[in-house]
Model the fold of this input.
Amino acid sequence: MAKIQIITIVANILFILYISRLIIKGKLREEYAIVWVICTVVLMLFAFWRNGLEVMARLTGVYEAPNLVFTGFIFAILIYLLHLSVVASKLYNDNKKLGQEIALLKEEFSKHLAKKE
Done:
């Protein structure tokens, strides 16, 4: 086994342990951790299967195997950014709605206090 394979495997194991720690402490939700675990498993697979990247490149018609890695991860990052944009938009709309509801409740409370005086 080559030195780079050992380094990659150790780094992947440490990364999965770190992700697990973040989940346990409540700093990372499980739905977001899945993406990180899948990426780490893919990297781990190619760390054990040295010719795997070449095989995948030939199957997909990519000329150079490293280009397949960059293309795959760029595509995955774009999908993940789109997902985060959707989540951020939903949170923005929810916060806006909550702010409007709080404003209505404050107004109703003020009217209620004015009637008592």
